[in-house]
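Let's practice the habit of predicting before peeking. Look at the sequence and jot down your guess about where helices and strands might fall. Then scroll down.
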Amino acid sequence: MQDEVTVLGKFRLTIKTSFGEISVEGDSPTDLRNALISIGISEESINNILDTLKQKLQAPVLPSPISVAPSKPEVAGVIEYGSNGKPHIIVPPDKLTAREVIGLLIYAKSPNPLSMSELTELVVNNWKSVGSPYISSNLSQMRAYVIKEGERGSYSYKLSGSGKNWVENELLPKLKLKSESQ
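Done guessing? Here is the structure:
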């Protein structure tokens, strides 16, 4: 890591563990290394991670079909979609409330409704490790913005017209403004 190349954008490393995911961000590979050291990861472990990464990057990868959710230009700079079509909120989690995360995720998956388990998984992957009772409580507070469909035990959730307006006219502009000022 002595030869550092100037690269536009941020570096993000996400490590899946038995207790969840750890994401570390930095402006350079050196920042990433320092962040990993600051959370107690040994130099040897970091080198192992980097060696594995180098091997993966050097191995030829055949292109595979990517099923990406329909592109929504209005979420650019706030949400990206993975190759699996799942939305990833790129705004730092500490800048978002539970209601904002839930609204963004339901919006990102629209017009498809989300089940409680799908919504909980997305919230955990994008924000904090919370359970469905926490999500349900926030959905109750958002009843003007969220439509609950289905039968007890198999509800699905989507944004109402006022929910879409809230996300498009208040939430997205506010988050884009925050990300531009960083």
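How did you do? Residues 29 and 148 are 44 Å apart (CA to CA).
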